[in-house]
């Protein structure tokens, strides 16, 4: 199993699977937004951005999986975005589960840097008209940020396992 995990980063298919899963999640988010009418809040958009970051980070080693620096960019982007997304999902879940969640107010706009106001450039993807405390959708009793917390944790755990397996294999060489 360790050997299998250690070999994955050198394979284009593994990075394609990671990127594809992220772009699939983004497509699902747009379906929820535009077909089901669920308006994303600021926390939703920040989680969407974290998923996008993982997907974009995976594209770098997808192009050149044998190049060490490309894999390093992939590892770092994948792990940082997964942890960042998990933290945002956790915060969002705390707001939704608070006894008086109406006391919590989302920011008006996502926290993009002033030099890159994505919510203004691409409002159809990054605008956040919804409210963080609202629970508009659930599946088996878990709301959207709960599922995102699970997904981000899975992404982070997978990243750590693959990086550790790769390091252990390199150490044995």
From TrEMBL:
GO terms for biological process: protein folding. Keywords: Cell inner membrane, Cell membrane, Chaperone, Disulfide bond, Electron transport, Membrane, Oxidoreductase, Redox-active center, Transmembrane, Transmembrane helix, Transport. It is a multi-pass membrane protein. The chain crosses the membrane at residues 12-31, 51-70, 147-168. Residues 1-14, 166-173 are cytoplasmic. One of its GO terms (cellular component) is plasma membrane. The keyword Membrane applies. Disulfide bonds join 41-44, 106-132. Coiled coil: none annotated. Residues 32-49 are periplasmic. GO terms for molecular function: electron transfer activity; protein-disulfide reductase activity. It is found in: Cell inner membrane; Cell membrane. Gene3D superfamilies: DsbB-like. Required for disulfide bond formation in some periplasmic proteins. Acts by oxidizing the DsbA protein. Belongs to the DsbB family. This is Disulfide bond formation protein B. It comes from Pseudidiomarina woesei. The gene is dsbB.
């Amino acid at each position: 199993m360790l050997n299998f995990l250690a070999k994955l980063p050198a394979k284009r298919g593994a990075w394609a699977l990671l990127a594809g899963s992220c772009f699939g999640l983004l497509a699902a988010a747009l379906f929820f937004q535009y077909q089901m009418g669920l308006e994303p809040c600021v926390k939703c958009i920040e989680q969407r951005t974290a998923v996008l970051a993982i997907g974009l980070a995976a594209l770098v080693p997808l192009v050149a999986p044998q190049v060490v620096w490309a894999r390093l960019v992939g590892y770092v982007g994948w792990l940082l975005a997964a942890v960042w997304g998990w933290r945002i999902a956790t915060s969002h879940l705390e707001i939704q589960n608070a006894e008086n969640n109406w006391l919590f107010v989302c920011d008006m706009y996502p926290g993009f840097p002033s030099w890159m106001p994505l919510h203004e450039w691409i409002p159809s993807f990054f605008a956040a008209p919804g409210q963080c405390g609202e629970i508009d959708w659930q599946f088996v009793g878990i709301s959207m940020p709960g599922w995102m917390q699970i997904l981000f944790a899975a992404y982070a755990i997978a990243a750590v396992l693959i990086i550790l397996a790769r390091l252990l294999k390199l150490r044995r060489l």
